[in-house]
Design goal:
The chain is an alpha+beta fold. Helix content is about 15%, strand content about 30%.
């Protein structure tokens, strides 16, 4: 696996080096998301702060990437992150507001930062995150800040914002703990931010 050069001034210069080379990375990231999805319920119940990797994600103000802006015609991360969760024995049960449920089985556009789940620079299975990743092995958000994407044709990995259009599924009991999946996705032009 290639490592990102630590002396790279601009992380955009290390795009091809940052794509994971291990097929198991998909299971690791999805499993980490599932494990961390229990954190919001626990943190909310205890009144404490949510641990990293849970919630809609944190955009570091030092990031070279601008935060995502709300764009007409593109599903809002604010809406997707409005889900609430409750712990039930060994799993987390999401409770989706009516606005999120209205997206189920609909064709939607979603924008975000790509997290590859396959080796190579073209991805057919990846995650979109509400915030840019700062670590190749860290999940930047909880399941409310991630969308699993299965695309019709591979999408080139980039550190820039990616927009896809496809059929949204709102997941109540995903074995990996995901809340959202877009299938039959095609890359769409990313609207001006």
């Amino acid at each position: 696996m290639s490592a990102i050069p630590m002396n790279t001034a601009n992380p955009r210069d290390a795009v091809s080096a940052s794509a994971p080379a291990i097929p198991a990375m998909a299971a690791v990231l999805l499993s980490a998301s599932a494990l961390l999805s229990a954190a919001p319920a626990h943190a909310q119940a205890a009144g404490g702060a949510m641990p990293m990797g849970s919630g809609p994600g944190y955009h570091d103000p030092r990031s070279p990437f601008a935060p995502l802006k709300e764009i007409d015609g593109v599903v809002s991360w604010k809406l997707l992150s409005s889900v609430t969760v409750k712990a039930d024995k060994s799993k987390v049960i999401p409770s989706f507001p009516s606005g999120v449920l209205a997206l189920d089985k609909r064709t939607v556009k979603v924008q975000g930062f790509m997290m590859p789940l396959e080796p190579g620079d073209k991805q057919s299975h990846f995650l979109l995150s509400s915030v840019p990743t700062s670590c190749s092995f860290c999940v930047p958000a909880g399941p409310e800040g991630l969308v699993e994407v299965r695309s019709k044709t591979p999408v080139r990995y980039t550190l820039d914002v990616v927009t896809v259009e496809g059929q949204m599924t709102v997941l109540n009991d995903d074995p990996y703990g995901m809340f959202y999946r877009v299938t039959q996705a095609v890359q769409a032009a990313t609207p001006a931010r």
